[in-house]
Amino acid sequence: MDFFKVSFLLYIVSISSLLSFVYGDNFYQDVDITWGDGRGKILENGNLISLSLDKSSGSGFQSKKEHLYGKFDMQIKLVPGNSAGTVTTFYICTGGMNHDEVDFEFLGNVSGEPYILHTNFFINGTGSKEHQFFLWFDPTEDFHTYSILWNPINIILFVDGIPIRVFKNNMDYGLAFPTSKPVHVFASIWDAEDWATQGGRVKTDWSKAPFTAYYRRFNLSNACVWNDGKTDCGINTDWMEQKLDWWSWMTLRWVQMNYLLYDYCTDTKRFKNGLPPECLIFTMQLSSQGSTHDEIDFEFLGNLSGDPYTVHTNVYAQGKGDREMQFKLWFDPTKDFHIYSVLWNPSNIVFYVDGTPLREFKNKESIGVSFPKNQQMRVYASVWDAEDWATRGGQVKTDWSQAPFTASYSDFSANGCTSSDTNACSKANSTWMFQQVDSMGQQRMMWAQKNYMIYNYCTDVRRFPQGLPPECSSN
Where is the GH16 domain (predicted)? Predict the structure, then answer.
């Protein structure tokens, strides 16, 4: 959404997901080593494959069968040490000039520097849809599971069951999506020293060769087999309708906020004539992300029985937060539903509780303060464990004997722009686009802040010894 007023009733959600993998049969049965002149080897009675690269050649394998839709899982242990210049892959591809392809590519690096996970989608031969990530672990120390889910709804890439990116089927908007061409599953290791590591500045150190990656637990049990123009999807086809639930969206958002290095959907220098159309559709459904994300927070910090909740609010603009204000509430938020609202328009952001404004963040771009206005956002809700900091600075830990901890939400209302054309939005019945806190609202906000505010970053001179943020002094 591009500006909105959103409210919901909250009855101060514990969601857990258990991910398990049922692995496929045997590499002897499932794949063929297709190139490498002996550098690819099936080991341990068909349970492990090693792929090696030296100065003469890399190596690779592909699935024996073709598949039209599926969930493809592979455990991989990457090349340790100085792997600069190498690329280790796991991907699905149709082949041919107008091929469809979904890529996991692991770009090696010098010793001590992390791998970069490079992902891409090709549809009818057109790619240029790259996302790059750091990983939150060392992928050379142990095996980790990398998964591609491809169904008629979306393509989702997972790492150890955690979603890292989604590509939705937006054919209704005239955008291409792979739906008709069967794929093989491929894996390989090869030399890409011209571009793989620091843009090609760091070359492959062939004295470290051979470079060897290991693959195991290849799972094809949730994939439709293509044979003579027909598909056999087996009995378990739940994955055919799988998409991300709320918790998965939150997890994906965490990954992209903390580990996303490059997103083609934000590269305006590369796409001078406008971002690809799927980027606009995609960002209407996700909060802005990456190192320059925008975010507006209501967070309710739990406490011991009998002690009040703390309402923690924050505003991020262009990746910069540190604008916390905290409040106690003038009621018990666990006894009944109450309305929590965020107003976001070009002039200001206002937080409300039951219609009473708690705080206002004004647009101060005129004095150089960033204000969220160019990135579409999605509305999220969640409950999660923050015992390291949430209650009394982490001194009071979560009592798991009281689990599960459940919150209830109702009467969600989102009156917002779903187009980047805010002028068109303002012409509609959108009085909130021009709404500001009136004099009576200012009095109510002063009452709330005088009686219930327990922390204000704008008064924390110890935290900001070089001077308070500029938006504070201008209030």
Answer: 21-215, 209-409
Catalytic hit among 44, 66, 101, 130: 101
State pTM to two decimals. Answer: 0.61
In terms of phi and psi (left: phi > 0; alpha: psi -120 to 50; beta: otherwise), the region of 264 is alpha
Regarding the domain delimited by 36-246, which CATH topology (the fold level of the hierarchy) does it fall under?
Jelly Rolls (2.60.120)
3-class SS of residue 312: strand
pLDDT by 10s per residue, the chain, length 475: 566 666 655 544 333 333 333 445 589 999 999 999 999 999 999 999 999 999 999 999 999 999 999 999 999 999 999 999 999 999 999 999 999 999 999 999 988 889 999 999 999 999 999 999 999 999 999 999 999 999 999 999 999 999 999 999 988 878 899 999 999 999 999 998 887 787 878 898 999 999 999 999 999 989 999 998 888 988 888 999 998 876 787 788 788 878 999 999 888 889 888 888 887 654 333 345 556 788 999 988 887 767 788 898 999 888 888 899 999 999 999 999 999 999 999 999 999 999 999 999 999 999 999 999 888 888 888 887 766 666 766 677 778 788 788 889 888 888 888 755 556 565 555 788 888 999 999 999 999 999 999 899 999 888 888 889 999 975 5
Quick check: helix, strand or coil at residue 133? Answer: strand
The correct CATH number of 4-15+294-374+385-473 out of 3.50.50.60, 3.10.105.10, 3.10.20.90, 2.60.120.200 is 2.60.120.200
Domain boundaries, the chain: 4-15+294-374+385-473, 36-246
Token duo for residue 155: 């393509």
- Active-site hit among 105, 193, 278, 471: 105
Compute CA distances 312 → 4, 233, 298, 373, 391, whole Å.
Answer: 20, 48, 6, 22, 11
Q: Is 101 a catalytic residue?
A: yes
